Amino acid sequence: MSNTIYLGYYFKVEPQQPAVEILIAELGYAGFESFVETEEGVTAYIQKEEWNQSILEDIQILNSDEFEISFTFEEIEQTNWNAEWEKNFNPIVVDDACAVRAPFHEKFSVEYDIVIEPKMSFGTGHHETTHMMIQHILKNDFKDKSVLDMGCGTGVLAILAEKKGAKPIDAIDYDNWCYLNSLENVERNNCERITVIEGDASVLGKNNYDVIIANINRNILLQDMATYVSCLNKGGLLFLSGFYKEDIPVIQETCEKLMLKFREKLERNNWVALKFIN
Question: Which EC number(s) does UniProt give (predicted)?
Fold first, then answer.
């Protein structure tokens, strides 16, 4: 993968919300793999071999009168990306219990020490949604629970679930880069009860879980919620994040129509993470 060439698109967005969220969702459908929200908007990455000159033609929000969106783009070598990431990636500690760090950082004296090399994948713990999902996992019982980590990114949440005693665990992501990265990180953390799967909700079939974790954007959650719930055991827990406080009513309404009961909300910089029980 070291020779993979990416294109980086640097979008300036005004006003930023909900435009950035919509833009990320539409770019994801168009084939962009990874996103970093910035002070000005969002940076999006796509493999050069997946790119074509009309890649942005179907991105409807670019034609909206409600937002001003401009962009530039450039070719990025994967090695350059990794150098930038290593330069800027600082370790984090969540609730004095879980550290998320890179291999080149010193080990933390906390109960759960997780080593992640995210490369192009989403989920270092730095983003508010990942941070809150880690908090949810820390606060809840995972011992001997079967777990699904849907949209696993780097695999960090599945790894923490195993460290808290969960088994078996499925970690699923449709993005090939995330799939490969999760495999690496699962091995790096000596996890033995995690199965990493490349795909979307359609691969779930008749699997059943005690706990489902889904840190994905709002539109995918709404689209696939019924599939998640069909796989959730009675009394099972569903943790959702990847959306803003303003999205709670539509998320909650969808969950309650599927007979889920709301239990808890975490909030961080306008992002939220919700807990439901089946």
Answer: 2.1.1.-
Query: Is 200 annotated to bind ligand?
Result: no
Are 70 and 207 part of one and the same domain? no
Indicate which CATH number applies to the domain containing 227. Answer: 3.40.50.150
- Of residues 274, 272, 212, 222, the one with CA closest to residue 243: 272
At 125, the amino acid letter reads: G
From first to last of its 278 residues, what are the pLDDT tens digits of the chain?
345 688 999 999 999 888 998 999 889 888 887 788 888 999 998 888 889 999 999 999 999 999 999 999 998 866 565 666 666 677 889 999 999 998 888 899 999 999 988 665 555 666 788 999 999 999 999 999 999 999 998 899 999 999 999 999 999 998 888 899 899 999 999 999 999 999 999 999 889 999 999 998 888 899 999 999 999 999 999 999 988 899 999 999 999 999 999 999 999 888 899 999 99
| φ and ψ at residue 25, rounded to 5 degrees | -60, -45
Ligand-binding annotation for 129, yes or no, is no
Say whether both 17 and 137 belong to one domain. no
227 is in an annotated binding site: no
Which domain range does residue 48 map to? 5-83
Question: Domain holding 51: CATH number?
Answer: 3.30.70.980
